[in-house]
Design goal:
Helix content is 3%, strand content 63%. By secondary structure, the chain is mainly beta. It has an 18-stranded antiparallel β-barrel. A hairpin with a 6-residue loop joins β18 (370-383) and β19 (390-402). The protein is globular, with a radius of gyration of 22 Å. It starts with 9 loop residues before the first helix and ends with a strand.
Amino acid sequence: MNVPFKLSCMSIAVASMLIVNPILAADEKAGVIRTESGIDFTPGLNTGLKYDDNITSANAASEKFDSWAITVTPALQAELIDGQTVFTVDAALEYGDYFSSSDDNYLDGLLKAKAEVDVNQSRRFGFDVAYIVGHEDRGSGIFEGTSGADQNEPNAYNIASVGGYYEYGAKTTPARIRANASYLTKEYSNFETITQFRNYDDTNVGATFYYDTQASTSILLDFQSVDTAYDMVDPTGDRDNKTNTALLGVEWAATAATEGSIKVGYQQKSFDNNDREDFNGLSWDAKVTWKPLTYSAFDFSTGRASRDPNGVGDFIRGTSYGIKWHHEWSELFTSSLGFKQVNDDYTGLDREDKSKVYQVGVNYYVTRWLTLNTGVDIFEIDSTDSQFAYDRNVYFIKAEMTL
């Protein structure tokens, strides 16, 4: 499975349409356009101005490009509630214009639909479909380590996905089981002499067994199997593989102070190509929110899993750690401080990367329909191969608007 694809700011735009000034929290639907058909529409518009001091993630030996840029993200969410069924459709576009580097301009798009259906007390199911037109910044993704020298535009791709689940077991009883399946295809649309070897399909099937206790806590056993098939054989050898992951864990709903989930288990990654090294090892995923105060929260996260590389090598063993602090200083001002570190150990070549990302943000709720936020994202990427090491700072100010 490739590195999780970037949705840019589009998914954030859709989510932010539902952000409400805390003063008006009781009137969450004030920005919704209600129709006689029962469909509620929530339009939104995000605009942002940013300064990027290393657009192409250039290393120390390469020329750096910096620029101011503006992003515009219109979005629309439609929701229909019909008895125990909820249908939702999200649509968004994002345009990015770099003032000093038009080669980096882009236009992304997102269209997503999902349904959640409660058949009765014991049975429920859901499905979703999505289509994404996205991009990878010059010097990133497949072209990481090139400092953008081989590109005259961002690397563009299309993603189509469909998935669903079926769950059996009443929520008032201790035991439930959920079966899931999904299919995703990713295809690059430019620089085809290079990108054609990274077009792939993912087929995922799995199941999760839940056992609920009397304390808003569920013990779970999760198994997922992902079959990754590439459209063309890579010049370094066939990359088709299957990844099986089994995790045992616990998740709990919000209590007075905490909520989250912790899962630990085993992952096995096997290649069709016998010349590539398989992976067998410990895997985990944990996300915990701690609220020492009603107006202050800490998010902790950590994970370990294998994934396919963008370039050469068999696979990457990635381990991540993160912490983020959210604080409400008043009804109008909130802030966030975050740090995340990812350690990537490559198999099939001698390379280790250590990525650190620092985030600082401040939100100002001007009115119910307008939120301003400003901050900086600081990237420090170190590698045993200096070609992949770089520093990058992105300063931004954004406006999130709804009706």
